Amino acid sequence: MARLRSVVVALAGERVELRGDASLYWPRERMLVVADLHLGKTESLRRDGAALPDGVMDHDLARLAAAVRETGAQRVVVIGDLIHDAAGLTSLVRTRFASWRRQLTCSVELVPGNHDQRVASMPEEWGLVVHGECLEMPPFTLRHEPAAVGGHLLCGHLHPAIRLSGGLDGARVPCFHLGAAATVLPAFTPLTGGAPVQAAPGDRVVPVVDGWVFEPLPV
Fold first, then answer.
1. What are the boundaries of each domain within the chain?
2. In angstroms, rounded to a whole number, what is the distance separating the alpha carbons of residues 25 and 33?
3. Strand, coil or helix: what is 198?
4. Fewer CB under 10 Å: which end of the chain, C or N?
5. CA-wise closest residue to 78 among 188, 210, 181
6. pLDDT tens figures, 124-173
7. How far apart are CA 212 and CA 203, in angstroms?
8. Which helix (H) or strand (E) holds 218?
9. Is the pTM of this model over 0.85?
10. Where does 89-159 show beta strands of DSSP type E?
11. CATH fold for the domain made of 3-210
12. What distance in Å separates the CA atoms of residue 217 and residue 100, rounded to the nearest whole number?
């Protein structure tokens, strides 16, 4: 399989770019879509005694800023779970994200997910545009969790993953899961686990490995 920095596919008649950084770019709207950043997850789990490395959030935000620069996106839309929970929303997390946000000239928008609902509101200094449960952008509907909707659904929540080779030794990696009615984005942060894709006939996946993607594969 040839590895690529991005692959262009047609979804609901629209040309979109699936990128090796786990983002989706919609050129016609100059919009970058990502899911499941879980900011503050390291801080939250450390409170429970977990030993986790430093720098994951900074690395994720640097990747996202790079994606904005490379695509020229005018909008960044996070389709849920921007933050992990209230315990992880420390002053350091708030300050670092606010500083990162000030470096961007594009809008940063949130379609809230189940983890985002664990806080009463997003920090004002983050300058977010917060939408309701769904954002309608025909022919797409953007939502955190899978659901039957009118347009082709772009969602996250499931953290889809695929095993690249058979047997117990095969590597399981994040992927985009392309179905007839919905496309599920991989989690943007590596701190999440991956759930095996539950595929229907005709579905395809686009594996994401260390900043690279591969051509869509049948599952």
1. 3-210
2. 6
3. coil
4. N
5. 188
6. 999 999 999 999 999 999 999 999 998 999 999 999 999 887 554 568 89
7. 20
8. strand 217-218
9. yes
10. 107-110, 129-130, 134-137, 140-143, 152-155
11. Purple Acid Phosphatase; chain A, domain 2 (3.60.21)
12. 35
